[in-house]
Structure formats: C-alpha cells, structure tokens
Design a protein that fits this description.
This protein has helices at about 30-50, 90-95, 100-115, 120-140, 145-160, 170-180, 185-190, 200-215, 220-230, 235-245, 250-265, and strands at about 15-20, 25-30, 60-65, 70-75, 80-85, 285-295, 295-305, 310-315, 320-325, 335, 340-345, 355-365, 370-375, 380-385, 390-395, 400-405, 410-420, 420-430, 435-440, 445-450, 455-465, 470-475, 480-485, 490-494. By secondary structure, the chain is an alpha+beta fold.
Length: about 500
C-alpha cells in the first residue's frame, strides 16, 4: 500500500490502494472495509457479468471520497477515472435500499464497461487524434446520454435485490404525463424542458433499454452501440444502427415502448385528487414536505425559475412566502410548533472534496434563522414539540451511522451508534421520551426502530425486509410512515 495526496483533500488524509489486474481502488484508510468490498464486487462482476455491452474492460482507477455530504459517483474520460462519494442519501425511495457503496459499484461498473467497449472505429480515430477528450466527444455524439444511464440502471437493478428499476417512484414521471393526457414526442422526452415537466434521461433510458432487451434480445444494445460508436453510419449513427440491427425504425421503437407502458396503466384506476395549489404556466414547481400549522400548511417550494423557499398556504387561496431556504443537498426538513429545522450545505473553505452541513432553525413568527451547530455531517433533523431538543442522523461512511440528540444551543446531549445500519428520518414521539427512525441494514433491508433516550435501549417497531421505508410523522400516539409494498408507495399507520 502506498499513500496518495490529492488537491481536494487535506494532506493529513492517509491514502491506501487495492491494485488488481482491472481496478485500482484508492481510498482513505478509514474506509478500508468498504474498499475491500467494492474491489471484491468489481472483480466478481468482471468475471461473471460481461454480457450485453461487450467483453473489453480497460483498467481504471477509482477514488473513494468519504468526506463530502454529496451522494454521487461518476466515470469519466480525460483522464479515464472514477470517483465514488460514499455518504449515502437519506431517501431510499429514489435510489433503492441497497448499501450505498454496493449501489455505486453496480452502477459505475457498467459505465466502465461502456467506455471500454465504445473505443472503436470513428471513436478510436478521434482518440488517436485528440486523446481521451476527443474520444469523449465522439462517444457523446454517437451514443445518447439516456443509453449510458439507462443501461447502468438496468445493470444495478438486474444484479441486486433493489436498484432504481424496482422503486415505484423512479417511473412516476411517465405516469404523471399519462394521467395528465400528455402525448409528448421523443425529441421532447430526449431534450427535456425548463418550462414543462418531463422524465429525466435516467428514467427514459431505463424504459428504452429494458424495452429493447425484451423485444430484440439481451445482446441488442451491444450490437447497436458497437456500430454507433464505430460510426459505421455518419448520419445519426445510433438511430441508423438500431434500424439496421432490428429492421424497425427508431421512432416506431420509442412509440412502441411508451405504448406498452401506457397499456399497463390503462388497466389501473386513476385516483381522484383535490389540488390545493394551481399549476404555474411556463414553469415546473415542486411543493415538498407539507406540514399542517395553525394557519394552514407550510412546505418547501422549488421551481425552475426561483430559488427554493418555504411557503405558508392558508388553504383559502392565500399563499405567503416565509423565507428563502439556505443551500442544501437534501430538501428534507421538519416542522413543529412554529419552528422549521433543516440541514444546510456548508462548503469547506479550502478542500474541494470535504464539506459539511449546518443544522438551522427558522422561526415562522419572526422569520429569523439560527445556526445551532455548524461543520457537521448531520442529516434529516427533527425538533421536539417544546422546541428544546433536536435529533439528527450522523453519517460517517456508507456502512455506519448514529442518532445524535442536541439541545437548541447545539450541545450534544446523547449519541448512539449503529455500526452496520444507516438510520434516516428520525422523529420525536409526542412526549420526546423516545425517537423513532427508519434503518437500513448492510443487506439492503429496511425497518423501523425506536430509541429510548433515557434507558438508551433500541427496539424494533417494524421488521426489516426488502423494501424502502421512510418519511416518518408522529401524530399523537400514532406513527405514520411511507413504505413500498407490492410495487406501490403507500402511507401506513401504527
């Protein structure tokens, strides 16, 4: 093992590496366990899962970054490398319940395979002339971004018990368009809009990649992308390759894929909804995490044209803007008795790969915002009914977490760790004597737990199983939560 230093991290970080024939995993010593597991998964996939995109695999360096609050990863060219940002998201409904490091390995491995097999023909010629930057441009012009991401989502779903393809939320945007009677063409779905609501390229890609495999065989995309990346046709290489390999026009394929999905929805009933707010013409508006107040409801509103802000709606047609929300990675917030609490983003002044959160309280009465604890990795905070205590989740890496109890001045009162679980969305019970939270195991199973803060005991309220659970609310002696069951997200009470 040899140490490495990067400009985005302090020189005090001690780096190690795991070097195999196909992968070089570079990581801080603090996440050695995750690095070993990632290396093992990648080697297993290298041997057993080479079908569907091609058998070439160029060795790649993968850097593990555990000191940022951002949950993400990428594989890129110029230079050819990958980075995994290991802090897991609190929301399991968007990306599934798999262990976060495992999800990144499954998804990004497919991108490694893609770049390794797209270096051919015209793309290889551009690489010879202009290096990896030229190859990146050639690949991007030949193969659409929806294929890159959709194919990777198919991979993470097929090789795990979860993955985005199994979460109902992932394809909900298509259902929204269908229920609204929208009939959008491929170019609109492909390019999106700042003024209209569309699925993103991950969702479009998953739909089309799955449809292609189902209708034309498991190896169809290997044939299509191989020919497209080689520029066997200079005019619309991807569409031309698809027509040559299947005998079906690309436009007909897209329409057929959408119609198949819509025919399934046509068999289902559409629930009647009474909207409390009106659509805004020429904009896409999200109203998130609605809480009842004495004056109506409070929520976070995001749109394409305005920065995120908290709003009050009196349910009589009057809407009042409360305050602009500080920059945050996670939109989640909690509310009780006139106080909002949320985790804001806090960038490090020096190091690009290290950042934090600040726990902030916003009082509705005077619109004053207060930072009660800064430079931490605390997420999804909740405030007690009397406003005297705050509970939040501390996440240090992809495998472990803790529940932290604070007073309103930011002093840590108690902390209880979970070595093999990620806890999320903690909530105080009515008398603040216990805290309930969702928990995710290393196996990707989720359940509900309860922390007795006085006795420091933990018990299980909902058994762990292979489904997302989260977004808890406490109303009196009743616990409300969202869970996925039989392919649908629904609200439950206990």
């Amino acid at each position: 093992m040899s140490a490495q230093e990067f400009g985005g991290n302090p020189a005090s970080v001690k780096w190690q590496q795991i070097n195999t024939d196909s992968f070089r995993i570079i990581f801080p010593s603090a996440v050695q366990a995750q690095a070993k597991r990632i290396a093992g998964m990648l080697e297993q996939m290298r041997v057993a899962h080479t079908q569907g995109i091609g058998k070439s695999l160029d060795k790649i360096s993968i850097v593990l970054q555990p000191y940022t609050t951002v949950s993400n990863a990428y594989v890129g060219l110029a230079p050819y490398r990958s980075e995994f940002f290991l802090t897991p998201p609190q929301d399991a409904f968007t990306l599934g319940t798999n262990n976060w490091a495992n999800t990144l390995a499954l998804h990004e491995f497919r991108h490694v395979q893609q770049y390794s097999n797209f270096n051919r023909g015209g793309s290889a010629f551009m690489s010879a002339l202009f290096g990896q930057a030229g190859r990146a441009v050639a690949n991007a012009l030949a193969v659409p971004d929806w294929f890159f991401e959709g194919d990777a989502v198919v991979n993470e779903t097929a090789l795990s018990a979860q993955g985005r393809g199994r979460t109902p939320l992932f394809m909900n945007r298509f259902r929204v368009l269908y229920d609204a009677g929208r009939k959008d063409g491929y170019q609109q779905l492909r390019n999106g809009s700042f003024r209209k609501y569309y699925p993103n390229h991950y969702e479009l890609g998953y739909l089309l990649v799955q449809s292609g495999k189902r209708n034309y065989g498991a190896d169809i995309w290997e044939k299509v992308t191989g020919s497209a990346a080689a520029y066997n046709s200079l005019i619309y290489p991807f569409q031309s390759s698809f027509k040559k390999q299947t005998g079906v026009s690309y436009k007909s394929f897209v329409q057929q894929s959408l119609q198949t999905l819509q025919s399934e929805w046509a068999k289902q009933s559409t629930p009647q909804v009474r909207w409390l707010s009106k659509a805004v013409k020429g904009d896409v508006v999200d109203q998130l995490y609605v809480y009842p107040t004495d004056e109506g409801v409070v929520y976070l509103q995001k749109s394409r044209s305005r920065v995120p802000a908290f709003y009050l709606n009196d349910l009589k047609g009057n809407v009042q803007r409360v305050a602009t929300r500080s920059i945050a990675v996670d939109d989640y917030f909690s509310y009780r008795n006139g106080r909002l609490v949320f985790a804001a983003f806090h960038a490090d002044k020096r190091w690009g790969n290290r950042d934090f959160t600040d726990i902030r309280i916003l009082r509705l009465a005077d619109r004053q915002e207060q930072v009660i604890r800064a430079n931490v990795k605390l997420f999804s905070p909740d405030i007690s009914a009397d406003g005297e205590q705050i509970v939040a989740t501390h996440v240090s890496d992809a495998d472990s977490s803790a529940l932290v109890l604070l007073d309103v001045k930011g002093k840590v009162l108690q902390e209880i760790g979970f070595a093999t679980q990620i806890v999320s969305h903690p909530k105080f019970t009515a008398d603040a004597s216990t805290v309930v939270a969702a928990a995710r195991s290393l196996r990707g199973e989720m359940g509900l737990i309860r922390w007795h803060t006085e006795s420091k005991q933990i018990d299980t309220l909902l058994a762990f199983a292979n489904r997302p659970v989260g977004f808890l609310q406490v109303q009196g002696d009743t616990l409300l939560f969202t869970a996925t069951q039989e392919g649908k997200d629904a609200q439950y009470a206990m």
